[in-house]
């Protein structure tokens, strides 16, 4: 291989690395902003006295719901996204299992997205700030 070819490959590798680093920084910035929004939602919901409830998770196949140890607020009508009283965000879907049916599921907190539903079908994405604001404004009458 010629020196020109090696230099070109190295420049390409550096460009790819720089692009990946920039993308990672952007994701980290968005995640920090979204995490702050979720924590702010939990604090405001508590301040307003919004009623909490025991959260459940749905199986991926949609055939069952399982209890969890979590208490908080569903933030979408499908009951697949929620915020717990500690200000952590959860995606409430898990694989179907006998263990979850008998003992309950233990979902882990998820990194909240800045735009909920990004990459989904048209019209189904919404900024997280808007979703949380709508949920706060709906109060306890939300379902």
Number of strands: 7
Percent range of helical residues: 40-55%
Structural class determined from secondary elements: alpha+beta
Taken in chain order, the helices and strands follow as HEEEEEHEEH
How many helix segments? 3
Q: Quick one: biggest sheet?
A: 5 strands, mixed
The Cα radius of gyration reads 20 Å
Uncertain runs are: none
Gap from first CA to last CA: 65 Å
**How confident overall, as mean pLDDT?**
90
| Strand line-up of the largest beta sheet | 4-3-2-1-5
What would the principal axes of the Cα set say about the shape?
elongated
Q: How many domains?
A: 1
Summarize the structure.
The chain is of the alpha+beta class and 143 residues long. The chain has helices spanning 3-48, 98-103, 128-138; strands at 53-59, 65-74, 81-84, 89-91, 93-94, 115-116, 126-127.
Write the layout of secondary structure elements.
Layout: H1 3-48, E1 53-59, E2 65-74, E3 81-84, E4 89-91, E5 93-94, H2 98-103, E6 115-116, E7 126-127, H3 128-138
Parallel strand pairs: 1-5
Antiparallel strand pairs: 1-2, 2-3, 3-4, 6-7
Can you characterise this structure?
- The protein has 143 residues and is α+β, with helices and mostly antiparallel strands.
- The chain has one domain.
- It is 44% helix and 21% strand.
- Strands 4-3-2-1-5 form a five-stranded mixed β-sheet. Strands 6-7 form a two-stranded antiparallel ribbon.
- A hairpin with a 4-residue loop joins strand 3 and strand 4.
- The N and C termini lie far apart (65 Å).
- The mean pLDDT is 90.
């Amino acid at each position: 291989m010629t020196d020109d070819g090696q230099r070109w490959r190295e420049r390409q590798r550096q460009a790819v690395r720089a692009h990946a680093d920039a993308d990672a920084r952007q994701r980290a910035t968005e995640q920090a902003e979204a995490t702050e929004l979720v924590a702010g939602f939990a604090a405001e919901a508590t301040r307003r006295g919004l009623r909490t409830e025991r959260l459940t998770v749905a199986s991926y196949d949609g055939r069952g719901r399982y209890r969890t140890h979590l208490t908080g607020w569903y933030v979408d009508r499908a009951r697949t996204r929620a915020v717990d009283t500690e200000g952590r965000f959860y995606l409430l879907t898990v694989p179907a299992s006998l263990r979850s049916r008998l003992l309950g599921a233990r979902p882990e907190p998820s990194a909240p997205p800045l735009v909920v539903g990004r990459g989904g079908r048209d019209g189904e994405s919404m900024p997280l700030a808007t979703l949380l604001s709508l949920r706060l404004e709906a109060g306890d009458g939300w379902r």
